[in-house]
Amino acid sequence: MSELFVAKVEDMADRERRIVVEGGLEIGVFRLGDEFFAWESNCPHAGGPVCQGRIMNRVNEVLDDEKRAHGYEFVEADVHIICPWHGYEFNIRTGIHPGQPETRLRGFPVTVREGAVYVAV
Amino acid sequence: MATDDGFERTYPEIDDWTDSRELLANARKQAEERQLDDVFIVDIDSHISDGGNWPEIMDYVEDPVIREAASAFGDGSKRGAFLNGTNGLQWQNVWGRIPHGQGLKEAVEESELSRETILARRCMDQMGLDYQVMFPNAMLFLGMHPVPEMEIHLATAYNRWLVERVLPEDPRIKAMMYLPFNNPVEAEETVKRFLGKPGVAGFLVTSSRHKPVHANEYMRLYGMLEETGQVLGFHTHLNWQDEYTSQLNRFISMHAISFVLCNLVHLTNWIINGLPERFPKLKVMWIESGIAWLPFIMQRLDHEYMMRTSEAPLLTKLPSEYMRDMFYTTQPMERTNETLLAASMDAMNAETQMLFASDWPHWDFDLPATIWDLPFLDEAAKRNILGYNAARIFDLEIPEKYRAMAAE
Ligand code: FES
Hints:
The structure holds two protein chains of two kinds.
Chain A: E1 3-8, E2 17-22, E3 25-32, E4 35-40, E5 54-63, E6 69-82, E7 89-91, E8 96-97, E9 100-104, E10 107-108, E11 110-113, E12 116-120
Antiparallel strand pairs in A: 1-12, 2-3, 3-4, 4-10, 5-6, 6-7, 8-9, 11-12
Chain B: H1 20-23, H2 25-33, E1 42-46, H3 54-58, H4 64-69, H5 115-127, E2 131-134, H6 148-166, E3 173-178, H7 184-194, E4 200-206, H8 219-227, E5 231-235, H9 251-272, H10 275-278, E6 283-287, H11 293-307, H12 319-323, E7 327-329, H13 338-347, H14 350-353, E8 354-355, H15 368-372, H16 379-394, H17 400-407
Parallel strand pairs in B: 1-2, 2-3, 3-4, 4-5, 5-6, 6-7, 7-8
Helix pairs in contact in B: 6-7, 7-8
The structure holds FE2/S2 (inorganic) cluster.
FE2/S2 (inorganic) cluster (FES) binds next to loops of chain A.
């Protein structure tokens, strides 16, 4: 197990991501608030560079009390990384696809030490 | 790591303008991990085109009045001139989530080469392709053009542009010529004019149109294609305006049905009217409807044919048996249920009848690894689907390096 330097905490804004590369391994490290998450940038669908995709919140469909539909809303709590190859979405906190929990990203432990972010591989 | 042409990855967030060598870097990785550079691979269907060359294509319009009139479009730029494209294509990128789904907007180097050739090479090199058959997006809607003659003007200009400008630039790029199918006599003229031109790999009908394929006016066309050994492709496309599809309020719903519906209709007419009996040697190919529709229509037609044989008197065997004589591209390969996929490929004799297609850069593109990683096919079947079936059907030259490998 080795540890890779990702960035200084102060250099990563909320919802920012960095890609770190070690040999053939590419890892996306994401900041959400004060938390950091690291996932392999290798999509379980077809091997796309998932961590280089757009970051967007989960979309929900709004229903009223009578179950009538009234358009969409973004869910602030659920931040997704979206694979740019074909659009699979993954919750950045859990690495899980919102429509099928078995479809998930491979994660790596992240530590924050003395103002810097590291990922263990 | 740099690619052969010196491109270095920078791992940016991928957007509409990202270089496709960056975007497809993992395709190169997959090719190397699986040694796919030792596998002969042909991509039957790609759509590298962002409309940027449409003004250039307009210069190939032969009618002088129409050619001049093109300048009245696109604020004088000729962009989009005369095209009847619907908004459906603009929804491909899932509202920004799949950037390349809207067409490649990346920069290319200053060059004598057309932008299409440069972009096709980037894709071919990353995916490890030996040949790529190119088909521009703009043409996919033409079968529904409200001005039937416009299909002739635009098809001829486009076919000429491909044959005179793009295909001579790289022998790895091939094209199927667009048939102005709503005008049968002009479709015959298209065959006569472009048959045998370097890089021409057959002729293609865009399937979104309301023209029954069994109409008598097409028999001479089919006869010509059969006699000359050319492939006749039916390339599916969307139609969000049909009475049924217009009820679908999401692109996912319309795409799932519309991209199959037109080919379901044409294939059913093709078989029930006995066209395979009339043109037994004609090579017919169904493009971009995926695979899952095939077991459905196969069972449905067989079941009903046994009870209503008198309605299809030209047939001498089951509809599914004719289906197994035709050809199918694999993309978009539905693969969430491996058991059903394996059964579907088996039912259609995939080993000899199916051909890999990427559909790059559309949102649901496939990669060579999509086929290579299928656990239920043996290696010979994979090699056939990836390339050798195409070589046989389109009469493509297999590069020496593969012939040497086969001889070892
Ligand atoms: S590879 Fe990620 S969505 Fe297909």
